[in-house]
Structures are given as C-alpha cells and as structure tokens.
Amino acid sequence: MQFLWKYIDDLVGKGVEWYYIAELLFYTTAGVVPLALPISVLLSSLMTFGSLGEYNELAALKSAGVSLIRIMRPLIVFIILICVGAFFFSNYVLPVANLKGESLLRNISAKKPALNIREGVFYSGIDGYSLKIGEKYGDGNDKLRNVYIYDHTSKNGNGKVIVADKGKMYMTPSEDYLVLELEDGVSYEEMMPDDRKAQRRYPFMRSSFKKSKILFDLTSFQSENLREERQKSFQMLNTSQLLVAVDSLNEELHEREESMIEALNGRYRFDGIHEDSIRVIPNNENVLVNLGDAMERRAVENALRTARAQRAYLTQLAAEYEWRQKVIARHYLEWHKKFSLSFAILVLFFIGAPLGAIIRKGGMGLPVVVSVIIFIIYHTLSFSLEKLGRELVWYPIPAMWAASGILLPIGAMLTYKSATDSALFNSEVYLRPFELIINRIKSLVAKTK
Q: For residue range 352-375, what is the model confidence (pLDDT) as tens digits?
C-alpha cells in the first residue's frame, strides 16, 4: 500500500490494463519478503515457545530429562533451511523481481508523458528536451502559464530556449505527438557558424512570436511491450554479478584516478625550473611592490581568479571521486546484505525461542508487543549502520554485520538463561542485592545508636 500511494500519480490515467498493475504489485511484494522474514521468525518462535511454557509443556519435557536445546533442535534445522532459502530468494528471485518491477513501473510512467509534466518541476522524459510549466489550469489542466522549453537536440547542446507567457497542451488523436500551442513568447538561440572567425563573435538570435505550435514525437513511448527491461542497478544483481560489477567499477576508478593525476600535473608544473633562473628574494621584501600599481592589481586579480578556478576544479574532482566510491560501497553493501539477512533470521530465532520460554505467554498479546520492540531495535540498528556504510563513514562489512553481531550475544545469553531455568524476569533477583545493602546500612546505624 505504501508503494501504491507513492506512485499513484504515475499509474492512474495511463490506460494500462489491470493485469499490468497487478503484476507490478506482485513484483513489489517480493521486496517485502526480506523485511518480513526476520520478524515472522521472531514472532512465531516467541509465540510457539510461549504457548509451550504457558501450558507447562516445557516443564513436562524438562522433568522428563529433555533439555531446551534438544527441544529446539528440530526447529534449529528448520530455521537453517529457511535461512538457506532466504539467501537463494535474495540472490536469485529478488534481483529479477526488482528488475522487472522497476522496468514495468518506468514503462507505465512513460506511457503518457503529458500527465507527468508537473507544475514548477523540470520534465526531461522527452528525449532532447526539458520542459517546465509554471502553472496548469483549465478543466483538463491543458492550459499553461510561464512555459520554458530547453532544446538539447542541436549540436550546440543547450543552445535554444523558448519562453512563453501562456499556452495549451494536448495530444494528437493517434497519441503519437504532444502538441504545445504557445502564445506571446520569445525564442533565444545561439548560432554556431562553420567559420571559426565568425564563432568568436558569439552570434546570437532572438525572435518573438505571437503564436507558435511545437510537436514532440512520442512514438518511442507507445511501445506495446511494457515489460521491456531497463538498465540494471546494484539491487538487480546477484552475488556473482555484483563482484563482476565491483571489479569493473574499481578499474574505472583507477583509470579515473590516473587521468585526474595527469590533469593535475598539467595544471601544476614543477619541472623545467633551474636554480640559476630563480632570483632569491629576502624574507621581508614584498614582491608585488616591484610590479607597480597597475601590474600589482592585475597580478592579484589573476592570482585570485586562478585560485578560484583551481578550487572549483578540485572540488569537482573530489565530488566525483566520492560519488564513485559510494557507488562501489553500495555494491559491497548489497553483496553482504544477501548473507547478513539469512544470519539475522537465525539470530532472531535464538532470541525469540528462549524469550518465549522465559515469558511463558502465547497468543497474539504480549509476544506481539515484545517481538515488535525487538524487531524495531534490530531494524533501527541495521538501517542506521547501513546508512553509515552508504555515506562512507564505516566499512561495508561491519556496517552490514554489526546489527546481527550486537544481537547475537543477547540471543546466546537468553538461550543460556532459559536452558538453566534462570529467573531472568523475577524482580526479586534484581532487588536482592539492594535489599542486602539496605539491611547492612540499617545494622550499621543500629550499632552506632
């Protein structure tokens, strides 16, 4: 339902058959399985052993000489099989579901691009153009105000811009073209003549119009194959494909590092300077004084301009380098997530089963509350630590395994306490040391009197 409400605007009014929407929801449901498996195992194990404890069946088994570990042994084998199945699901089923679901969603969203053009937001769904509509009004929201069209189809790149005060938008009867009828507008276009001398003059053309009609070809959006697959991302790869992608990304990063170093060496030259060509300047001597007022001002301006340009260039390189590292980190995180999910299911079972035996309450009451609290703690830890890995604050391996590692000692302690029949939730056990201290203080006070 969260997915449906999130993309309701992209799905409604596209004239798509119902079974495409059902198929999309089916693929989306597959993404919920990794989140549902851990809490389902936790809740079911807590309810099962809570019911056994509530009706004294665990006490009967233990009195017959059967230990808790022996009682849990068949379930441990079953949970291990679930962990293996969860890994194969995450490795082979989920990537395909993500790929098909994302491709189907994008193809449905692009079915009628006129519906996706929103007020105040640039729309780049039409190849070669970027559109921005200030306001849509009228009965069918087909009338427009403050229209901006950026044309990227020319060899100049973004060399043409059309601005209009108002207009109208509609589809042709065959839905092959999107028509914009503009009124009271101006067209700005940079000219690029073949003569280099003419290019240095930076020719520019400005033209006004009262009415203009622009047609956008939409035949590329009318593909009947809505299941056509798009480019894969890291969430659509299995473990072997992720390793191959990481190797390629590391190689690209290394090549980019070499090109960055080469570019920086070209900007900062330290070779070709001889000692006899350098004039030694005393520490107290101001170099700019020797240049004169006009040259001094020009030298300072050139130095500031060069420093700003270098800082902007280095900032851009740093941002690109960080972006490439984050992409590689996301692939590593996705690779480890496929294994850490299965391990988390096993850890949560060793928390839920002994905790249910200690609480001795079955049904949908207390076990649901306890399991939800434990799962919220696990999910918060897992999500927060994974975010640290995505932001390069922490390494991918500990970022994905730390949540399970934190809960593993808790599960071991609960299993031990339950197997030894320790009074874990008996308040008297925890209050006894304080009672001893209070009694000791009272005896000392009595002696002083």
A: 888 888 888 777 777 788 888 888
- For 219, residues 6+ apart whose C-beta sits below 8 A from its C-beta are 176
Q: Which two tokens stand for residue 123?
A: 């729309």
Q: How many CA atoms lie within 13 A of 33 on its CB side?
A: 22
Cα 372–chain centre separation = 25
d(CA 353, CA 40) in angstroms, rounded, equals 12
Nearest to 378 by CA among 324, 323, 340, 414: 340
Euclidean distance between CA atoms 33 and 86, whole angstroms: 9
Instruction: Outline where 169-238 has alpha helix (H).
Output: 196-199
pLDDT digits (tens, 9 = 90+) for 273-331: 444 544 544 544 566 666 666 777 787 888 888 888 888 888 888 888 888 899 999 99
**Global confidence as pTM:** 0.66
- 144 forms beta bridges with 136, 167
**Amino acid identity of 364?**
M
User: Tokens 């009415």 label which residue?
Assistant: 211
